[in-house]
Amino acid sequence: MEGPESAMAVVAGLRTPENVTCVLPRGTMFARGLKRKCWDGDEDVEGAPAAPSYSLQRQSLLDMSLVKLQLCHTLVEPNLCRSVLIANTVRQIQEEMTQDGAWQLPAPPVAGRGPLDHLVSTEILCRAAWEQQGQRPAPDLPSELPGALGAPAPGSAQSCIWEADSSRGHRGSFPKSLDQIFETLESRAPSPVEGLFADAGGPYYDLDAVLTGMVGGKSGPGGGDGLQALAPAGAPPPSASCKRDLGELDHVVEILVET
Amino acid sequence: MPSHRVPSEADIISTVEFNHTGELLATGDKGGRVVIFQREPESKSAPRSQGEYDVYSTFQSHEPEFDYLKSLEIEEKINKIKWLPQQNAAHSLLSTNDKTIKLWKITERDKRPEGYNLKDEEGKLKDLSTVTSLQVPVLKPMDLMVEVSPRRVFANGHTYHINSISVNSDCETYMSADDLRINLWHLAITDRSFNIVDIKPANMEDLTEVITASEFHPHHCNLFVYSSSKGSLRLCDMRAAALCDKHSKLFEEPEDPSNRSFFSEIISSVSDVKFSHSGRYMLTRDYLTVKVWDLNMEARPIETYQVHEYLRSKLCSLYENDCIFDKFECAWNGSDSVIMTGAYNNFFRMFDRNTKRDVTLEASRESSKPRAVLKPRRVCVGGKRRRDDISVDSLDFTKKILHTAWHPAENIIAIAATNNLYIFQDKVNSEMH
């Protein structure tokens, strides 16, 4: 069975919302004798490497959870119970990482495998937006990562992400970012039409609408500045809902980049 | 199913329910259809031929809808069916999808009037000049026709997805539960419902727990229970307050610190809760266990049975492929002495509460030759492996038995295995008794 890389490869296949599917399709595990995806159990798997460190497992679980929360584009409303359970898992991990002191500034781009995994996540999330705006995907990826993730590009955009990141606060903002995801369960600033039906509850995944908006070229302030759009704004600006949407995307990116 | 039809996703069975006598068995599927089976009466001339279930009626209960405001589809999948106690010749049931509950009336017609004065047999108006005398129409027998008609549509009561419906013992009201709210309806009134539980936080950011299942007490019309994604059960008394947000009793088992992991909460989420027929106990299902609770003891369950403990070391993979979110149901037998629940690989498990013995059985074509006794299966977890054992890594996680039902009085069980329905009957003494 595939490892975490190909889960990311699936994610990398996303272009437009129409042809995305849930990241981890059901029924894709435990074919006979194939190696496990996660570091489950101590079963005999020939030639398996030594189990990765706890913190790497934990990090991988965090990444997986965030992907599950954010990239489920379906026509039907996502399962609220599942989303709540995943979000609680993310919070638990974050709390433990905070206690461990593992919740720190991201290492500089030259670091080893860990931070690059997170770069991957970020790159995927931003990729759709950039491609629509004719820009190349940003990060300068080492060759060991699957080619499906796109050709290397100048490092300038990559450093831009890190810059964007370092200019923001870190630890305190994580829970807020997670809450932002749940904020999307109900529109905070409902449009006049939505206001009439406030009690009906907003769409669960406005975030999907955000991404849709991005790839549809509706990205608010100036169509061409995908990267600038991802720049931090601190609290989401109270003005146009486009900017608010970008603020939410910004926070989502923040989660990935910070880890 | 007719053999020429290729099984599609619409045929996946999503709920199974016997009526109160066990004469009828209803199934709902992902395509919004309900199929009702009826048990043939045992024929005296062939006493060994146990009454078998044949298709009685099929109808389209729900259609897919599109919510234009949210740009989201509303699935037609039938989440639950509940029968109403029979009060006259007709049968009635409630069926629900994510948003709308419908009351269906099922009637039989085996006679029809003949001999009208103004119409002929085809219903065409007669030429009045040919009518020379008056006659009284008489009822003549005809081939049995089962007619199903929608009597009530209970719509717009739920913002979130309905996961349970339960008919009150007063036979006049019923409740429907979604992720965050529970509503009480009167069976005759469709434009109004009373909200009796609301756990939606003022700030959706603070949402950490949802309602997963709910049921009325079988005898006390004022009591109901609901379960949560954090593994707790709340017993509520409708006499206490109009809004039953304060539970009368909270049933929760303290966490076992030695088994703690990032998945602890997810696997503690209760996927189903069922009162025993006696009303004294509750049965809950979480990801790895079934538990029996005594209504008089809130601190912990009185019995815990391991369904597939061998999955505990696989939780990360099961989380990755979403299987950890599968919602298995559970069932009591008629005498509350045996409990049953489904698992993976088309296995289902039964636990005898008295003898403490358990058995794993498989619902598959190979094991279901008519009159063949089901062979117990075994999952081996390393160590000594017997012939016919299945190893954990060979389990097929796409074959899950989520929905099972037990006849209210006899040892007849209905098992839904994806798009196949298996009905197993026990004529001779099985190893369970």
TrEMBL record, chain A:
**InterPro entries, per database record:** E2F-SERTA_domain_protein (IPR052262), SERTA_dom (IPR009263)
Compositional bias of kind Low complexity = 141-152
Q: Which UniProt keywords apply?
A: Cell cycle, Cell division
Entry keyword annotation includes Cell cycle: yes
Identify the stretch(es) annotated as Disordered. 133-152
Q: Where is the SERTA domain?
A: 54-101
One GO biological-process annotation of the entry reads: cell division
Q: Which GO terms describe its cellular component?
A: nucleus
Q: Which PANTHER family match?
A: CELL DIVISION CYCLE ASSOCIATED PROTEIN 4/SERTA DOMAIN-CONTAINING PROTEIN 2 (PTHR16277), CELL DIVISION CYCLE-ASSOCIATED PROTEIN 4 (PTHR16277:SF6)
Which named protein is this? Cell division cycle-associated protein 4 isoform X1
Q: Which organism is it from?
A: Phyllostomus discolor
Q: Which gene name does the record give?
A: CDCA4
TrEMBL record, chain B:
Q: Does the keyword Nucleotide-binding apply?
A: no
Could you tell me the keywords of this UniProt record?
Repeat, WD repeat
InterPro entries registered for this protein in UniProt:
PP2A_PR55, PP2A_PR55_CS, WD40/YVTN_repeat-like_dom_sf, WD40_repeat_dom_sf, WD40_rpt
Q: Where is the signal peptide?
A: none
Gene Ontology molecular functions: protein phosphatase regulator activity
A single GO CC term for this protein reads: protein phosphatase type 2A complex
Entry-linked Gene3D superfamilies: YVTN repeat-like/Quinoprotein amine dehydrogenase
Report which superkingdom the organism of origin falls in: Eukaryota
Give the PANTHER family listed for this entry: PROTEIN PHOSPHATASE PP2A REGULATORY SUBUNIT B
Protein family: Belongs to the phosphatase 2A regulatory subunit B family.
Q: What is this protein called?
A: Serine/threonine-protein phosphatase 2A 55 kDa regulatory subunit B
The record lists the organism as Phyllostomus discolor
- Gene name of the record: PPP2R2C
